[in-house]
């Protein structure tokens, strides 16, 4: 098997020989193993800049620099790429930062001089018509054109917060969160009380997993503009992600007091209630949303999940079908449909739904994913979705294909080795496998104990039971799943 260094050496050899397609394949093979590998990102970025694929190439050059900021060549390559992409101000900012951080080379100073020389003369200030055109492109999700217009705005009026705010919002919508954050913070520095900018920064921080910081920015946005329902609803969502469900519910209710027909708030309210175990109230919230907008696919899907949790599988199936009628081919909704089919014993249909969910490549048409993103997506779908693998294991187990089920569980467990529910499925499958010896099955149980039982021993509490050996024993069965367990069928005649 080739190592990262082997892939890189092969890519560079092809690149230097002008065999660009072969070089690209080798660079991508390295990135499939490690998407953060700086040398491969740098090589692929340079190659794509040479081909005129500026946005894609610049993305790789940025990732190379993020992975190895101490490498001077990466700063220079990014600045040169920006200059070739007609983004001289950005190129100048990059090379000046590099020089300030110690890249005091002749090549760096020559590049800076060339950038300064190539800069166009100042353009006239933006007009109201420019603002309308920018907003129109953004609202129509034409992000590439909108980005070009927003960048021209910041060049023409670098002290105007609006241009930076719009550029940050566009970058955020283009899944370029780290870049968006710096731009939005620049906008906020020019207009510290702008609620929309605060809300946008919160959204970027939330996408980056920095939830506490996101909550602070949403709260600042709501304070800066009382009644700003978008910020309040975002605050509800991030509170739910932080596990602060009561607070999440409170913010949902504030939004619904301002706007009783706010669909996202009703959906968020249902999600919070579901996590609190208040399932009937969650159903009511989702049904209220659907009364307002019957074609709200997310509400149908979430309603189906709550009905599933209540054991109302036929109703859940109907809800998931409605969701998929509105959003055909949605992978998560297909998986939910498969879950409902499975509970109803319709295993072939469950398997078909799961397989379709696994095979779909989630493409965001509004972003028009570049070739390298599609490639990474294919790698991901083919190898590393433990939840989907566990679902397939469940289905094959029910269908009696135990070898395939075992392989799916083991693969899922190797990817996500801290999830006992995946290993539960493996143990259940091994118990029914006709070719497994008692020793093999017991070894799997001992492995389960080593992984999940032993770490909890320190927190075991002593039993307070009576130790009298002559006492009368009282036996009981306690299980959250007893109502759907085969044991119930055996005991029911005795209790009748």
From TrEMBL:
UniProt name for this protein: Tetratricopeptide repeat protein
Lineage: Bacteria, Pseudomonadati, Pseudomonadota, Gammaproteobacteria, Chromatiales
Keyword Repeat: yes
Gene source species: Thiorhodococcus minor
Pfam families reported for this sequence: TPR_1 (PF00515), TPR_11 (PF13414), TPR_16 (PF13432), TPR_19 (PF14559), TPR_8 (PF13181)
Segments annotated as TPR repeats: 161-194, 195-228, 229-262, 263-296, 297-330, 331-364, 386-419
Record key words, sorted: Repeat, TPR repeat
PANTHER family: LIPOPOLYSACCHARIDE ASSEMBLY PROTEIN B (PTHR45586:SF1), TPR REPEAT-CONTAINING PROTEIN PA4667 (PTHR45586)
């Amino acid at each position: 098997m080739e190592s990262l260094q082997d892939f890189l050496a092969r890519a560079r050899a092809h690149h230097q020989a002008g065999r660009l397609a072969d070089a690209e394949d080798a660079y991508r093979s390295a990135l499939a193993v490690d998407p953060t590998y700086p040398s491969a990102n740098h090589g692929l970025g340079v190659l794509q800049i040479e081909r005129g694929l500026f946005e894609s190439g610049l993305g790789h050059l940025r990732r190379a620099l993020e992975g190895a900021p101490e490498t001077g060549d990466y700063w220079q390559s990014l600045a040169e790429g920006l200059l070739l992409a007609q983004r001289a101000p950005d190129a100048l900012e990059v090379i000046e930062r590099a020089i300030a951080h110690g890249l005091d080379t002749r090549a760096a100073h020559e590049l800076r001089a060339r950038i300064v020389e190539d800069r166009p003369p100042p353009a006239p200030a933006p007009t109201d018509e420019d603002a309308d055109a920018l907003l129109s492109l953004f609202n129509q999700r034409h992000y590439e054109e909108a980005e070009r217009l927003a960048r021209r705005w910041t060049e023409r009026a670098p002290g105007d917060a609006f241009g930076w705010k719009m550029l940050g919002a566009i970058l955020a919508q283009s899944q370029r969160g780290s870049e968006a954050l710096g731009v939005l913070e620049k906008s906020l520095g020019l207009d510290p009380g702008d609620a929309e900018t605060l809300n946008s920064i919160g959204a970027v921080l939330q996408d980056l997993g920095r939830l506490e910081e996101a909550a602070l920015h949403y709260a600042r946005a709501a304070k800066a503009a009382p009644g700003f329902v978008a910020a309040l609803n975002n605050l509800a969502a991030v509170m739910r992600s932080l596990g602060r469900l009561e607070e999440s519910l409170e913010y949902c209710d504030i939004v619904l007091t301002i706007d009783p027909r706010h669909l996202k708030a009703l959906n968020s309210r249902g999600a919070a209630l579901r996590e609190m175990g208040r399932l009937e109230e969650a159903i009511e919230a989702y049904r209220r949303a659907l009364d307002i907008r019957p074609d709200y696919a997310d509400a149908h899907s979430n309603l189906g999940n709550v009905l599933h949790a209540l054991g109302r599988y036929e109703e859940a199936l109907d809800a998931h079908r409605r969701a998929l009628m509105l959003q055909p081919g949605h992978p998560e909704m297909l998986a939910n449909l498969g879950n409902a089919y499975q509970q109803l014993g319709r295993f072939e249909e469950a398997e078909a739904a799961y397989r379709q969910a696994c095979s779909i490549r989630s493409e965001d048409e509004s972003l028009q994913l570049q070739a390298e993103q599609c490639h990474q997506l294919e790698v991901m779908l083919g190898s590393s979705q433990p939840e989907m693998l566990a679902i397939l294991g469940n289905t094959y187990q029910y269908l009696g294909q135990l070898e395939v089920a075992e392989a799916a569980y083991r693969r899922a467990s190797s990817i996500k080795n801290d999830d006992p529910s995946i290993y539960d499925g493996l143990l259940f499958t091994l118990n029914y496998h006709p070719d497994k010896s008692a020793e093999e099955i017991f070894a799997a149980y001992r492995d389960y104990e080593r992984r999940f039982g032993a770490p909890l021993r320190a927190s075991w509490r002593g039993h307070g039971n009576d130790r009298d050996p002559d006492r009368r024993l009282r036996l009981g069965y306690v299980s959250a799943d007893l109502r759907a367990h085969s044991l119930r069928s055996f005991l029911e005649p005795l209790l009748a």
